[in-house]
Design a protein that fits this description.
about 475 residues, alpha/beta, FAD/NAD(P)-binding domain, 3 domains, 7-stranded mixed β-sheet, 5-stranded parallel β-sheet, disordered C terminus
């Protein structure tokens, strides 16, 4: 299949870019792993669940309706259940990029899309930091609790503690409370002073924050600012969580421990961008984010990026970046220089929201000394069952000075997730700076698919109905 633009990811950024480019005559193929458009932010319950008021699970619902209806009315080709594992750059005798994906119930059926340009709108994922008891059934990530509620209309338990740091905790706590869960506490490690110091930059979202505060008050949810989770308790399932106050230096204050009975602990410590595809393409990173210019172009010709992959910033920022990228791509594919005045409103929104989330990052950082609460017998890498003591031994006794050496000595990060989940925790315990791991593939790939890659009879298994080619079905 050939197209002008391949957009990878059907969240807010991917949808905005697809609609902006398609409206200007670009042939767009939108590729996404989900069964429906919307990404994680606009995750929808399956039609069979019969949700009567799905809008109650979301804010910015009208924006979603405009995106959904716009996609349905557009000429954008939307490929669902396509898990992209690699994007090949143009070769000497090959024009355009080749996007490789897996589809089907077992994600073993190969599919390819060839495109003149690529937009990476791959989103982000949660940062997970361990603590004693975090592997107990009933302990979930904050985003996981929200995904279960939005996508499955289910909750993990009857009494919940929502803890960690960052803006995501607010919709998770209010969403669970609205679903009938008793939210015993919202535990935010950031203290009030940090928010006051950055009040001018945070002012843009004060009305939204006030709405969440009103819902927390209405549902009688206690808010514990400047606190953190110290330990989760239970034998075969979660029974309680211990929280404690933090001093200004980020250490637990002695004597402030409080045990809260609960059967659900939803914990989130911020998010990280998905950059696997960008790294494999050789795109420059700024820290952990994909570097882009004012048009959302990466430093690899023909590749744009928008949304969380360029820096965690929420749906509104992703929409602005996606719109700018889509208009830029449409102009560049026509061979003309785009006029930035055409997206002036989106640019103003982008600037304002980037300033806001820069302030959020300063305020809502994990406690500085979180590793002090991690005991040696706490599992850090769940895939390989590596404990914190093994990581400390690799550094203190075996001389490991970087993440790669720690990985070789302990196997931390060698499992199914390839360090995507445990990487920040291992880096924190080892005292190393997190370093991007440039992987050739963004997800596990069957060996049979790799063996046939590059051979048209092997990689272009596309049905005529869903995936037509110029030559017809293969």
């Amino acid at each position: 299949m050939s197209t002008d633009l391949a957009v990878i990811g059907a969240g807010p950024a991917g949808l905005a870019a697809s609609l902006a480019a398609s409206a200007r005559g670009v042939r767009v193929t939108l590729i996404d792993a989900g069964e429906q458009a919307g990404g994680q932010f606009y995750r929808q319950p399956a039609a069979g669940l019969g949700a009567r008021r799905p809008q109650e699970l979301h804010h910015q619902w009208r924006t979603w309706e405009r995106l959904r209806d716009g996609l349905a009315a557009s000429s954008v080709r939307h490929l669902t259940d396509h898990h992209v594992w690699c994007v090949e750059q143009p070769q000497a005798r090959q024009a355009g990029f080749t996007v490789h994906a897996l589809r089907g119930p077992l994600q073993e059926e190969p599919a390819t899309v060839r495109a003149d340009a690529v937009l990476l709108a791959t989103g982000g994922y949660e940062k997970v930091l361990p603590f004693p008891g975090w592997t107990l059934p009933g302990v979930v990530t904050a985003g996981g609790a929200q995904a279960m509620l939005k996508g499955g209309l289910v909750v993990a338990g009857r009494t919940a503690v929502v803890a960690g740091t960052g803006p995501l905790l607010l919709p998770v706590a209010t969403g669970l409370a609205a679903a009938g869960v008793e939210v015993a506490a919202l535990v935010e490690s950031a203290g009030p002073r940090g928010f006051v110091r950055h009040l001018p930059a945070l002012a843009a979202k004060l009305p939204e924050a006030a709405g969440y505060a009103a819902r927390l008050l209405r549902n009688r949810v206690p808010v514990m600012a400047g606190h953190t989770v110290v330990e989760a308790h239970g034998d075969d399932h979660l029974e309680a969580a211990t929280v404690a106050a933090l001093d200004p230096g980020g250490r637990v204050r002695p004597g402030t421990h409080r045990r809260i009975p609960c059967d659900t602990l939803a914990v989130g410590h911020g998010m990280l961008p998905h950059t696997d595809l960008a790294e494999a393409l050789g795109c420059r990173l700024d820290g952990v984010n994909v570097h882009v210019d004012d048009e959302q172009r990466t430093d690899v010709p023909g590749v744009w990026a928008a949304g969380e992959s360029t820096g965690i910033g929420g749906a509104a920022l992703a929409l602005a970046e996606g719109h700018i990228a889509g208009r830029s791509i449409a102009a560049r594919l026509r061979g003309t220089a785009p006029d930035p005045r055409a997206w002036a409103a989106a640019d103003r929104s982008r600037t304002r929201l980037r300033d806001f989330f820069a302030a959020v990052d300063s305020v809502c950082a994990p406690p500085t000394h979180w590793t002090e609460q991690v005991t040696d017998d706490t599992v850090v890498c769940r895939c390989e069952e590596v404990r914190a003591g093994a990581v400390r031994e690799a550094v203190d006794e075996l001389g490991a000075g970087d993440l790669r050496t720690v990985k070789l000595l302990t196997r931390a990060g060698m499992g199914w997730c390839q360090g995507r989940v445990c990487g920040p925790a291992v880096a924190g315990l080892a005292g190393c700076d997190p370093t991007p791991a440039r992987r050739p593939f963004a997800r596990p790939v069957p060996l049979g698919v790799l063996a046939r890659a590059g051979h048209p009879t092997g990689t272009d298994h596309l049905t005529e109905a869903d995936h037509p080619t110029e030559e017809g079905p293969s």
